[in-house]
Amino acid sequence: MTRKRRRLVTIGVCGAVLAVALGLVLWAMRGTIVFFRSPSEVAQAAVAPGVRFRLGGLVQEGSVSRGPNETVSFTITDTAAAVPVRYRGLLPDLFREGQGVVTEGVLEPGGVFRADTVLAKHDETYMPREVADALKAQGHWQEGGRKGGQEAGKTGEAAPRTASGTGPATR
């Protein structure tokens, strides 16, 4: 066997070993890979019932209702579409209406998303790119803590002074 032929055989064997290793890794991970979907994608019937995925968006105002045995129902929206969610368990401390969340679970045949994990986001900085893009397109995005050209919590006016004029007023 010539030197060139040995080199080609070695490269071929290494390629085959790498392909088998990659195949085994993908086969082992097939149950743990979870894709992210927005409420708009779910509303367009892009997800079949029973498929596990992550659903992210904002908790719709006025949609949270608590039931018995730590059961909570709420609606996740990206302002274009909304998906009802049912979750049983304790919610994170940061969970509230109007706040960004990511849930993981399955879509039931009736169109209700049954979540087994709820992650509440601190702010839009940590929101998945797809949800952030949808919110930007509809004017609901707070880029860098700003909304409508003003910093959150600031109006650009000087803080009111106390009667002595030496410091900020307390309320």
From TrEMBL:
Kindly list the positions annotated as binding heme.
H122, Y126
Extracellular-side segments: 29-171
The principal location of this protein is membrane
Where in the cell does this protein reside?
Cell membrane; Membrane
Keyword tags: Cell membrane, Cytochrome c-type biogenesis, Heme, Iron, Membrane, Metal-binding, Signal-anchor, Transmembrane, Transmembrane helix
Q: Give the matching InterPro entries.
A: CcmE, CcmE-like_sf, NA-bd_OB-fold
How does the entry describe its membrane topology?
Answer: Single-pass type II membrane protein
Membrane-spanning regions, if any? Answer: none
Q: Where is this region: Disordered?
A: 139-171
Query: PANTHER family from the xrefs?
Result: CYTOCHROME C-TYPE BIOGENESIS PROTEIN CCME HOMOLOG, MITOCHONDRIAL
Q: Write out the similarity annotation.
A: Belongs to the CcmE/CycJ family.
The protein, known as: Cytochrome c-type biogenesis protein CcmE
What organism is the protein native to? Answer: Methylobacterium isbiliense
